[in-house]
Structure formats: structure tokens, C-alpha cells
Amino acid sequence: MTSSADAPAEKEPPNPRVLILSCSPHTGGTTDAVARVLEQTLSAHGGLAETIRLRDHDVRPCIGCGFCSDHPGTCVFDDEAARLFQRLDAAHTLIVAAPVYFYGPPAALKGFIDRAQSRWALRESGRAPARPRRPARAVLCAARTNGERLFEASLLILRCFLDTLGFDMRDPLLLRGAERPADILHPPALARIEAMGCEAAGEGLRLRHE
Ligand SMILES: Cc1cc2nc3c(=O)[nH]c(=O)nc-3n(C[C@H](O)[C@H](O)[C@H](O)COP(=O)(O)O)c2cc1C
């Protein structure tokens, strides 16, 4: 069975202004706490926030079979990846929240990212539907407090993934010393997360009216 990654976006759920893609496998961890703060900030600033918790969805990792090279925009797997890509397509703006695991994205996020190969193949084929590019942001949580290159791999991978999906990455929020929720639920860190939420809410509202 195959699935189409370029089918028109469905009506349900309603077009979000800001989609939060929360990407930790850990229930109740730091990334979930960041996503909650973002949701609250977005609603307080008139944004319509929708959160996707990646771990709640059945997404098989890419097996590199080449099917999407031969049939751009489609995949051999009929799981939830195509539907998730459609929800990303429907967002006016996106925030990806993720932990750093071994200097990169956690496995399930990387698995989802690799599934964007079908979108990359579609774009290369010149048959991708024309869509305006949209802004995206990333919030990354890592336990270490130092290390110049701590976020480098995650940022490079995310930038490439988001570009493939038609998003331009804005300045990321990089949270160090963020091992557990208590490490970000204090005023200085909260202020930085809320500031990103405000920015995204403003941008989402503006883009919705364009
Ligand atoms: C498998 C694994 C690998 C990790 N690797 C790193 C790392 O390379 N650098 C770092 O600073 N923290 C690392 N951490 C710590 C997490 O980034 C940190 O605890 C984060 O807050 C976890 O977020 P979560 O609870 O939402 O998953 C790792 C944690 C796990 C479970």
C-alpha cells in the first residue's frame, strides 16, 4: 500500500496559525514543558495553537527503498507520516521543540525527517504544488551547559528538513542546562520561551491575514 504526501490538505483539524511539533519520546519531560509554555503563550496572544506530539503517531523510519524517487511525493508506507506532512503544510508558522540526544535529534524525529525524502523527490521532480514559504522556529533542550557545537548537528538537520517542507528557519532558541522541566520553568528561561511564542503568534496572525 502506498500513501501520497502531496494530497491536498484535509479540512480537519482547522488551519492552525501556529503548529507546535513536540518531538521528545519522553512523556512529561523538558520538551513537553516547553510545548506547554508555548501553547499558553500563544493562546494568551491571540494565536491559535495546535500541538502534534510526534511520539503519539505511527511513523515508520525511511528504509531507503527508492520508491519515492520513482514515484515522487509517495511512499511505500501507509502510516501517519503523509497526514502529518499535510498538517505541517496547513500551518501558517511552525515551532519544532526537541531535545538533544547524542548531539542530534532523537531517533523518532530523525525517522520522521528522513520520510521527507518523498517531499524532496517531489520538489526535485518540479511537480510540487507552488506554496508560499513560511517561517519556522526551533527550541532545542540540552542538559549540557557548555560545548560550542552542542546544537550544531540538530540545527543543520532541521534547517535542511524545514527547507524541504517550504519553511525558512528563524533564529532558534537554544536551552542549555535543560535536563528536566524544572530547569526551564524559572523566570529567565520562561521569558525566552514566551518571547518566542509571542513572536510566532504575531507572525501567525499576520500571515493568516495575508
Ligand atoms: C538518549 C539521550 C541522549 C542525550 N544526549 C545529550 C547530549 O548529547 N547532550 C546534552 O547536553 N544532553 C543530552 N541528553 C539530555 C537531554 O537533552 C535533556 O535531558 C533534555 O532535557 C531531555 O528532554 P526530554 O525530557 O524532553 O526528552 C540526552 C538524553 C538522552 C535520554
TrEMBL record:
It comes from the Bacteria. Pfam families: FMN_red (PF03358). The keyword Flavoprotein applies. The keyword Flavoprotein applies. One of its GO terms (molecular function) is oxidoreductase activity. Residues 16-129 form the NADPH-dependent FMN reductase-like domain. Keywords: Flavoprotein, FMN. This is Flavodoxin family protein. It comes from Candidatus Bilophila faecipullorum. The lineage of its organism: Bacteria, Pseudomonadati, Thermodesulfobacteriota, Desulfovibrionia, Desulfovibrionales.
